[in-house]
């Protein structure tokens, strides 16, 4: 994800200009994870989002993101579960990212789209509190997990620690990321109000807004604080960690991996580390670039409230939100493109699902759960021709597989 968000999602606050003299400043913020068009009025014809052509484009954009995100992230989780060779510490963290992105794709984006197009909250009180919190939770999980991956690789590579993080420790860290993220996102559920908003006599709509107990600036303070904790600080930590990792990998192989009969194995491991680090750095870059326009726009809104008076404010906001949400399906594409292990596993799943037998269809070569063997029937059973079939072999299943450590993917 990542948070994003995502994030897949955001924690910033959008302020609403007062509709009348009875405006309550304590109810002046709406969380943009569920963007609201209330501040411009449903009946304003100049609102570009009310144009049919714009709505069609938004429906296509959000639908594409949802479908690609659900399919891609589900596939990542499945292959990590299915194939034992993918059950490394780094891949468990990657699965955690996929779960967070799935949360955004299934629980948040469909409702965001409907709310954007209709301009009214029609999902009731419970979801008013639940959905913004869920998206905030997911983007925090994504950013914290990206930090954990970077720091774990920094520990292993920079300090030559080949000892794997134990799986129970890994699962404990994952649980900790969810607990910490739940705490950081809790204000989205605590300081929230579901109520009615009268646009004109006889016309009232339901809205889902934040309501802070103190000054109206409390929402802005929280917004900027989350911008720092959710974007700038994590990216600074990650950039520092990967800069040191890249410096270490660029010039030499570690002493533990050189000399004697192990030089070939050490060289291969060094190559895998560099390739994996490239993939993980690309993940971070995609996350940062996807969210940068949205965060910059939100920061401009927090600093200068006149931005809200722009005719195309809602349209710009929605475009930046769509760009940010692209990060929820980008990672599976990166895995398939940049990592031979994931690519082989994805191909094996597709060939298994299509019932193809023979060439390249033996899942036992990448060690699925249950160890289906050639000639044993079911997916991957090639009968007598199975022994002649070209196996799909993961990179970690060659002669160096015994040397896998915490930095391999």
Q: How many DSSP H or I helices? A: 11
Q: Indicate the radius of gyration in whole angstroms.
A: 24 Å
Measure the end-to-end span: 18 Å
Give the overall form: globular
Total of domains: 1
Q: Helix share of residues?
A: 55-70%
Regions with little confidence, pLDDT below 50 for 5+ residues? 1-45, 254-258, 356-365, 369-378, 380-407
Please write the string of helix (H) and strand (E) elements.
Answer: EEHHHHHHEEHHHHH
- Here the CATH topology equals Rhopdopsin 7-helix transmembrane proteins
* Largest beta-sheet details: 2 strands, antiparallel
Structural class call reads mainly alpha
| Strand order, largest beta sheet | 1-2
In words, what does this structure look like?
- Pfam families: 7tm_1.
- It is found in: Cell membrane.
- It comes from Amphiprion ocellaris.
- GO terms for molecular function: neuropeptide Y receptor activity.
- Residues 253-273 are annotated as: Disordered.
- The chain is mainly α.
- The chain has a single domain, classed as Up-down Bundle (Rhopdopsin 7-helix transmembrane proteins).
- It is 57% helix and 5% strand.
- The protein has eleven helices and four strands.
- The strands form two sheets. The protein has a two-stranded antiparallel ribbon. The protein has a two-stranded antiparallel sheet with strand order 3-4.
- Helix 10 packs across helix 11.
- The two termini are 18 Å apart.
- Residues 1-45, 254-258, 356-365, 369-378 and 380-407 have low confidence and may be disordered.
Summarize the topology.
Layout: E1 14-15, E2 29-30, H1 52-82, H2 89-107, H3 109-118, H4 124-158, H5 167-185, H6 187-190, E3 192-200, E4 203-210, H7 218-251, H8 263-303, H9 313-325, H10 327-338, H11 340-353
Helix pairs in contact: 1-2, 1-3, 1-10, 2-4, 2-5, 2-10, 4-5, 4-7, 4-8, 7-8, 8-9, 8-10, 10-11
């Amino acid at each position: 994800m990542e948070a994003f968000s995502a994030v897949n999602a955001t924690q910033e606050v959008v302020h609403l200009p007062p509709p009348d003299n009875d405006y309550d400043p304590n109810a002046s913020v709406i969380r943009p994870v569920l963007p609201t068009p209330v501040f411009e009025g449903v009946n304003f014809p100049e609102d570009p989002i009310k144009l049919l052509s714009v709505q069609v484009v938004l429906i296509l954009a959000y639908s594409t993101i949802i479908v690609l995100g659900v399919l891609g992230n589900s596939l990542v989780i499945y292959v990590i579960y299915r194939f034992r060779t993918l059950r490394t510490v780094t891949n468990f963290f990657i699965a955690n990212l996929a779960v967070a992105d799935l949360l955004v794709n299934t629980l948040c984006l469909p409702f965001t789209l409907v709310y954007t197009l209709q301009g009214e909250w029609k999902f009731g009180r419970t979801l008013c509190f639940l959905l913004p919190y869920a998206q905030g939770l997911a983007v925090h999980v994504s950013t914290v997990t990206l930090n954990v991956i970077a720091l774990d690789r920094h520990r292993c590579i920079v300090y030559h620690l080949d000892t794997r993080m134990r799986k129970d420790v890994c699962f404990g860290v994952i649980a900790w990321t969810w607990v910490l993220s739940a705490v950081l996102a809790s204000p989205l559920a605590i300081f929230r109000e579901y109520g009615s908003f009268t646009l004109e006599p006889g016309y009232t709509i339901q809205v889902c807004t934040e309501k802070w107990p103190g000054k109206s600036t409390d929402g802005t303070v929280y917004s900027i604080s989350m911008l720092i904790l959710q974007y700038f600080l994590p990216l600074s930590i990650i950039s520092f960690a990967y800069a040191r990792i890249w410096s270490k990998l660029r010039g030499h192989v570690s002493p533990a991996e050189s000399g004697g009969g192990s030089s070939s194995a050490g060289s291969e491991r060094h190559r895998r580390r560099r390739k994996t680090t490239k993939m993980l750095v690309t993940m971070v870059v995609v996350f940062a670039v996807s969210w940068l326009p949205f965060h910059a726009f939100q920061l401009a809104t927090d600093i200068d409230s006149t931005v809200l008076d722009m005719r195309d404010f809602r349209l710009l906001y929605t475009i930046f939100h769509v760009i940010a949400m692209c990060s929820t399906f980008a990672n599976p594409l990166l895995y398939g493109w940049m990592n031979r292990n994931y690519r082989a596993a994805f191909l094996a799943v597709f060939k298994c699902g299509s019932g193809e037998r023979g060439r390249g269809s033996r899942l036992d070569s990448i060690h699925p759960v249950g160890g289906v063997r050639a000639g044993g029937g079911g997916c991957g059973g090639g009968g007598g021709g199975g022994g002649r079939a070209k196996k799909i072999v993961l990179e970690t299943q060659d002669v160096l597989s015994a040397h896998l450590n915490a930095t391999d993917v």
